[in-house]
């Protein structure tokens, strides 16, 4: 009796790093894409979070490795190392917060400083459901994206608007998909995720202990 052997091509893996100011909705976009849910309670990302999901594109399958970075200033020094081997940088701003839009230029500069032109950059105007609080027009977003030669889309993680479209556009633009030629040196870092989380947990616990000790010393000082 002959056995039938099935051969499958290796699963392509791509690293997507999410960047932007605090509370623009980076985590919410990822959560909506991963689980199709939205959490109304805000909790700031501490350090870096990692998730991955497989996407099916007609006859191709890709695994997206999603790296969610903290927007707070105290974590900025950690971010360049995560940009360095990324295939895609998703720069998110809040359409109801003009300063977060202004700061996207700096984030894009940081990405290009680390990756040059060998990276796909997507400018995302999130929270499009807040139309009555809008401080950045669609036209302004489109203009900036055109000036900086990046992709652009507006989304609402809360309403689920354009989130699937965002990730589909990214997946279709990835190197190696339908003849796209940008080369990627992305490594499969999924096996390192537990170690990364453990290291961050230890680091921030130590930082918190040191901070608490400093506050105790300051409160007992008689000067």
From TrEMBL:
Keyword 4Fe-4S part of the UniProt annotation: no
Keywords: GTP-binding, Lipoprotein, Nucleotide-binding, Prenylation, Protein transport, Transport
SUPFAM superfamilies in UniProt: P-loop containing nucleoside triphosphate hydrolases
BP-aspect Gene Ontology terms: protein transport
Organism: Rhizopus microsporus var. microsporus
Name recorded for this polypeptide: Ras-domain-containing protein
Coiled-coil intervals: none
PANTHER family: RAS-RELATED PROTEIN RAB
CDD domains listed in its UniProt record: Rab6
Secretion signal span: none
Domain of life assignment: Eukaryota
A Pfam family the protein falls into: Ras
Classification of source organism: Eukaryota, Fungi, Fungi incertae sedis, Mucoromycota, Mucoromycotina
GO terms assigned for molecular function: GTP binding; GTPase activity
């Amino acid at each position: 009796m002959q056995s039938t052997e099935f051969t499958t091509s290796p699963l392509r893996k791509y690293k997507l790093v999410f960047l932007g100011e605090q509370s623009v909705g980076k985590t919410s976009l990822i959560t909506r894409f991963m689980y199709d849910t939205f959490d109304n309670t805000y909790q700031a990302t501490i350090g870096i979070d990692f998730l991955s999901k497989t996407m099916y594109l007609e006859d191709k399958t890709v695994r997206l490795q999603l790296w969610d970075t903290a927007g707070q200033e105290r974590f900025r020094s950690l971010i360049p190392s995560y940009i360095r081997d990324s295939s895609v940088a998703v720069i998110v701003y809040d359409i109801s917060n003009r300063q977060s839009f202004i700061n996207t230029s700096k984030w894009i500069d940081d990405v290009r400083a680390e990756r040059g032109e060998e990276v796909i950059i997507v400018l995302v105007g999130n929270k499009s459901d807040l139309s009555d609080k809008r401080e950045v027009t669609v036209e302004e977003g489109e203009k900036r994206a055109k000036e900086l030669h990046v992709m652009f889309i507006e989304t609402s993680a809360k309403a689920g608007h354009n989130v699937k479209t965002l990730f589909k556009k990214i997946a279709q633009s990835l190197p190696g998909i339908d003849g796209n030629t940008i080369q990627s040196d992305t490594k499969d870092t999924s096996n390192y995720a537990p170690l990364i989380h453990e290291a961050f947990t230890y680091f921030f616990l130590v930082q918190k202990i040191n901070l608490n000790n400093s506050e105790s010393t300051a409160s007992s000082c008689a000067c």
